[in-house]
Amino acid sequence: MTIKHLALSYGAKSVIKDLNFSLQKGSFTVILGENGVGKTTLVRSLLGQLTPKAGSINFFNQERDIKLGYVPQFRNLDEEYPLTIREFVALNLYHGWMPWLNATEKKRVDRAIKQTNLVAIQDRPLGQASGGEKQRAYLAQALIEHPNLLILDESTASLDVGMKYELLALVAQLQEQQQLSVLFVTHDLPLARQFADHFLLMEHDRYQTGTMDQLKVSRVGEAHV
Ligand SMILES: Nc1ncnc2c1ncn2[C@@H]1O[C@H](COP(=O)(O)OP(=O)(O)OP(=O)(O)O)[C@@H](O)[C@H]1O
């Protein structure tokens, strides 16, 4: 994916100006930056929810080659949330009036549930799952479409340390096995250093990119000069 001279704004409020960035196929890239710098805004533009004011976003060779998977920020679901884990994972496969899945769709659900280690608990209500299990269910839902670019937006923010590493280790495994490219938005530098190979560091007036060993910050947003 190549981003050239990208500008994004909300009405008159400019958030991103002249961003240039390349995401290499198969890489695990972390997007770092302080609160309010525009990380989620950038993700929204990649998901096609926000039209650039200027510049371009080109996905790999041709735009139709790209299949995006998106794991949103962790939101704790109500304990009473009515769907089981399996129903939640399959949610996007239901079309309008058709309340059942065909054999191929069932296989896709089985595969995503297996990939995310949810087989044993797939029939439990999602509302009663642990934070890590809920995030794995979001990941499984994103994997249903067999994405080649997976975007995780602060997906680990409210998970405890063990669960964060578990989720990211799973993502890294999928990245390797399936030639996935991963874009991971986070404030968590140790986690980024553990799993990512490239970074995009967003600051209010500049952007830096490179391989993780070129990242010279001790905490997000604070560059050593
Ligand atoms: N719908 C909107 N309308 C107007 N301004 C917005 C809107 N959404 C976000 N903003 C503003 O755009 C700026 C960038 O927000 P964004 O959510 O992209 O930041 P972020 O880097 O993801 O922050 P955080 O780390 O806190 O999630 C902020 O100043 C925010 O207040």
Automatic annotation (TrEMBL):
Domain annotation ABC transporter: ranges: 1-225
InterPro entries reported in the protein's UniProt record: AAA+_ATPase (IPR003593), ABC_transporter-like_ATP-bd (IPR003439), Metal_Ion_Import_ABC (IPR050153), P-loop_NTPase (IPR027417)
PROSITE patterns in the record: ABC_TRANSPORTER_2
GO molecular function terms attached to this record: ATP binding; ATP hydrolysis activity
Family of this protein: Belongs to the ABC transporter superfamily.
Species annotation: Paucilactobacillus wasatchensis
Keywords: ATP-binding, Nucleotide-binding, Transport
Protein name (record): Zinc ABC transporter, ATP-binding protein
SUPFAM superfamilies: P-loop containing nucleoside triphosphate hydrolases
